[in-house]
Amino acid sequence: MPNPASPPRYILDEIVLHKKQEIAQMQKELPLTFLQNQLTTAPTVRNFLTALQENPSQPSLIAEVKKASPSRGIIREDFDAVAIATAYERGGAACLSVLTDQKFFQGSFANLRTVRSHVELPLLCKEFIIDPYQIYVARTAGADAVLLIAAILSDEELQAFLHVIHDLGMNALVEVHTLIELDRVLKLENLRLVGINNRNLENFTLDLGTTKQLLAQRQQQLQSLGITVVSESGLYTSADLSLVAEAGVRAVLVGESLVKQSDVEQAVRSLLRHDLL
Ligand SMILES: O=C(O)c1ccccc1NCC(=O)[C@H](O)[C@H](O)COP(=O)(O)O
């Protein structure tokens, strides 16, 4: 639990505090050596990055399996992770993102495992990674890619975790929200995939201008390094997708606006304008 004597500055502090306790408990139940032994029988890794690059004519969709969030509370009461994931797949998503945090997002590694066994698309484990142990948990549950959030990791941690992720054959989506964070991650070796989060996690405001502004300043550098950029959060319409595509992103990560629709498959088609083809 958060320490009331030093209240968290914002939600990420609270999440990280909780993660530390959660990881300590998980390590008691599932030691790292046990997970390492399980790697040989883990589902084969699918190439997350290649799947995002397949269709150059429009931004590829990473559709998120998301029941709840700190900013929105419960997004969908009748939440069925497999029904949502398979609807995303039928609708034309390139990849999926599965939230595994329980306390703040009502996600789980069980959801990641069950989604893995029902869809062919590459999966991102959407977790708050602060310890390499969690990367092994993600891989053994069937993840093909893992999120690293620059705001909660030092430069050294980012580089070390990136190595672990690549050694396990997976991709890393490295998330930034500010130019300072983007400049930090651009110094990493073997960086391939950057996510620009349009949500300010201090006050939860959403601004697609975040993607535009960061790309206006670093697009050339990102391009010359061959880095694929994903715009994350607050994307609702195909016009929103066009806006961030014009700014230079190759893919978008969308959760709430799809999850809350009664016909999720049709919502994906409309977002990608496949209903007009
Ligand atoms: O969504 C939140 O409220 C949130 C709070 C604290 C940390 C992270 C949070 N969101 C994670 C995400 O990046 C989004 O789930 C993802 O980009 C999809 O966003 P959306 O389409 O707006 O659901």
Automatic annotation (TrEMBL):
Residues 12-271 form the Indole-3-glycerol phosphate synthase domain. It catalyses: 1-(2-carboxyphenylamino)-1-deoxy-D-ribulose 5-phosphate + H(+) = (1S,2R)-1-C-(indol-3-yl)glycerol 3-phosphate + CO2 + H2O. It comes from the Bacteria. Pathway: Amino-acid biosynthesis; L-tryptophan biosynthesis; L-tryptophan from chorismate: step 4/5. One of its GO terms (biological process) is L-tryptophan biosynthetic process. Keywords: Amino-acid biosynthesis, Aromatic amino acid biosynthesis, Decarboxylase, Lyase, Tryptophan biosynthesis. Pfam families: IGPS (PF00218). InterPro entries: Aldolase_TIM, Indole-3-glycerol_P_synth, Indole-3-glycerol_P_synth_dom, Indole-3-GlycerolPSynthase_CS, RibuloseP-bd_barrel. It is an enzyme of class 4 (lyase). Transmembrane segments: none annotated. Its EC number is 4.1.1.48. GO terms for molecular function: indole-3-glycerol-phosphate synthase activity; phosphoribosylanthranilate isomerase activity. Belongs to the TrpC family. PANTHER family: INDOLE-3-GLYCEROL-PHOSPHATE SYNTHASE, TRYPTOPHAN BIOSYNTHESIS PROTEIN. NCBIfam families: PRK00278.1-4, PRK00278.2-4. This is Indole-3-glycerol phosphate synthase.
